[in-house]
Amino acid sequence: MPQIEIFLSLLRSGMYGTPIPPAELPESIDWKAITKLARKHTVLGIIIDALQFLPESLRPTGELRAKMNKFALGLIQANLVLEQTAARLVEFFKKHGINGVLLKGQGVARYYRQPQMRHSGDIDFYVGTSSYKKAFEVCRRENLVKPGVKLNKTDQHFAFNFHGAPIEIHRIASRIFTPYRNKRFQQWVTEELEHSLQRRALTVGDTDITLPSCDFDTIYIFYHAWRHYLEGGIGLRQVCDWAMIFHTHADDIDKEKIIKNIRRFGLTGGWRLFACIAVNHLGIPAGKIPLYDPAYSRKSEKVFEEIMTGGNFGYYSEEYLKFKSYGYTGMRYATEKTLSYTKSFLTLLPVIPSEATFLYFRRLFNGPLRLLRRSK
């Protein structure tokens, strides 16, 4: 049995807390290869959680088992620290009259059977355009954003460290490439994150942390992964995050509303590609995902292969390593990057025509063309 099939069987087992069907059980497991693949896609915690459902003869032993146990304990501890830090952050801003919503991270982990076994990184906290300036001023006044230190700031967020954890304070949650659709998207984000009565709460100690609604997450978690896929790559964990929403809350989401918004935002093609991956490889029943279309299965296999090859944010892909070796500068880099963007554009054009077009020209003008102009 190919390693990737064994890996996917273990992943589904860990995600859903079910034994691997007898027909899918291999005769043996190359645990070093599986561990390497799991790290590449930041799902090692989920794979480790699947060990309890395996026959003893197939479980890792000795030094590797000890390393897995140590990793799992470290992951649990890291997630507990992030939860506590998120609670501190909420209390910090509340003290200054600022309310916000936790995006992704510890909120998405709650869609998993074992939240502490999901890999988490930074804390994304949305305060919206109305409170963004005040949040920045408060962070500067409290010396979280230090004068004289290069500031990690974009038009969407600013970042700093808080009790040892990386924090991003968001003015906007994300942006769609097509301008007129982005306007609709921003209006929807504002309504969902600032006014929706379906927002949820994560209680940590005495602190209630506001989370988005499940309806919001179905679209936002998809688009976050889809955008990263378009711009450089993602690991399989990002698709798992999205799939787990449907596994856990398929009966709670407003499917008709989701379908309407996906179409309004021009995301139908990408959504259907990811839906086929969730159904065909991650085991989500087809009826749980709105707009699932098996006709996209063949095209989705190419996307799946790119995800499996590229790994977490595409850092393992040949293309990423090649461009990294160029130092992201120079004529050769600019020329080959332009060719890469053009190839990607031609592939995506039949699936997401408007998004592909706006993404293509945005990439050119923000990257290779700027380098070429500077080199003249």
What would you note in describing this structure?
- This protein starts with a helix and ends with a helix.
- The chain has helices spanning 3-16, 31-40, 44-49, 62-95, 105-109, 128-141, 179-194, 214-231, 236-249, 255-264, 268-280, 297-310, 318-325, 331-348, 353-366, 368-375; strands spanning 101-103, 123-126, 152-153, 157-162, 165-170, 200-204, 207-211.
- α8 packs antiparallel against α9 (236-249).
- The strands form 2 sheets. Strands 1-2-5-4-3 form a 5-stranded mixed β-sheet. A two-stranded antiparallel ribbon has the order 6-7.
- A hairpin with a 2-residue loop joins β4 (157-162) and β5 (165-170).
- It is of the alpha+beta class and 376 residues long.
Which characteristics define this entry?
two-stranded antiparallel ribbon; globular; 16 helices; 57% helix; 5-stranded mixed β-sheet; 376 residues; alpha+beta
Distance between the termini: 54 Å
Low-confidence stretches: none
Structural class: alpha+beta
Shape: globular
Q: Strands of the largest sheet, in order across it?
A: 1-2-5-4-3
Major β-sheet profile: 5 strands, mixed
Strand content: 5-15%
Proportion of residues in helical segments: 55-70%
Order of helices and strands: HHHHEHEHEEEHEEHHHHHHHHH
The overall average pLDDT, rounded, is: 90
Report the strand count. 7
- Report the C-alpha radius of gyration, rounded: 21 Å
Number of helices: 16
